[in-house]
Amino acid sequence: MRDLPRYGVVVAGVLALALTGCGASETTSESAGAEAAVTSPDVQDEGGESAGSDAKDAAKSSSSAAGDDDSTSETSASEGAGAGKGSAKPRGSKTLYRVIRVVDGDTVKVNINGGESVRVIGIDTPETVDPDQPVQCGGPEATAAAKKLLSGKSVAVVFDESQGRRDKYDRLLAYLDVPGSGDFGEDMIRSGHAEEYTYDAAYERKPTYLAAEQSARSAGKGTWGSCQEEPAPAAPEPAEPAYTPPPPPPPSTPAPAPAPTPAPAPTPAPAPAPPAAPAGPGPGWTNDALTPGYTGCRQGYPGGRINGVYWWKPIPC
Questions:
Q1: N or C, which end of the chain is more exposed by having fewer CB within 10 Å?
Q2: Are residues 106 and 187 in the same domain?
Q3: Candidates 116, 119, 141, 205; catalytic one
Q4: Does one domain contain both 130 and 187?
Q5: Residue 171 annotated as catalytic
Q6: What SMART domains has UniProt attached to this entry (predicted)?
């Protein structure tokens, strides 16, 4: 009976060692599962679901198997759904580029390759920065409208296969789409700050731009209401000729017949007069009809055109 306590102590020690070994095995298994969940990369398939999220959910389920089965299943499902939504990239999304500077109403500099100028396809606005032309009517307003639409924004630069990639000034030719706002070119035309412009070949969005211009013209928006040329005064009607009475009848006695005179020599037809030049703004101003082929420096007439004719004055370069 004295040896029983010592035997009990030995048995208890053996049981404790066995239980400790089982616990270490379970702990090691849980740690391996958690490490696999952290280090497995999130691989996204076409549907936008994350394979890494499924691996993490599986690790969570295995590590919490000893707890409440219903509660653990619900938590894992909700976490997996959240990971799938947050990490998927929408199909067909366009790269956005920050607008660096609005040059004028139809030219914008964006953050491509450190800074590229984009000439917007299909629109034209009055000039404000051309060194060979004065500031045209509606130009400052068009630039202000462009800044309101684009300043501080990031835009999608959309090319058109019908147009070249760059113009003769090495500017990119593209549309600018503003997220949450839409087509920048259409907005400028619809507000009356730009008109539809086809440079060489028809482009994809031309029908939409033409419809927008017709709407702005009809409503007299922007330059269509504030920069239209005054109509030329109507020419005065010719005065009605004064009444001339008919000559008196000849006397009853016939007059002697006059002696025959030699026929006069034929007179050559007069040379045709040169075409009259359209009325211009004054001395020193000319146009392409009066001075064809002039390629030197010139100063444009303020306001642009008179009766559809662009007037300019030669100036030293």
A1: N
A2: yes
A3: 119
A4: yes
A5: yes
A6: SNc (SM00318)
DSSP sequence for 295-310: -S-EEEEEEEEETTEE
Residue 191 lies in a domain: yes
Question: Domain containing 219: what range?
Answer: 96-226
What's the structural domain count of the chain?
3
Q: Could you say which of 49, 79, 166, 171 is catalytic?
A: 171
With bands split at pLDDT 50, 70 and 90, how would you rate the model's confidence at 265? confident
Say yes or no: 127 and 103 in one domain: yes
Q: Is 98 a catalytic residue?
A: no
Residues 214 and 106 in one domain: yes
- Cα distances from 35 to residues 63, 156, 307, in angstroms, run 11, 41, 80
The token pair at 189 is 């035309």
Of the candidates 116, 127, 141, 195, the residue annotated as catalytic is 127
The larger pLDDT score, comparing residue 265 to residue 62, is at 265
Q: Has 119 been annotated as catalytic?
A: yes
pLDDT of residue 277: 54
| pLDDT tens digit sequence for 110-155 | 999 999 999 999 999 999 888 888 889 999 999 999 999 999 999 9
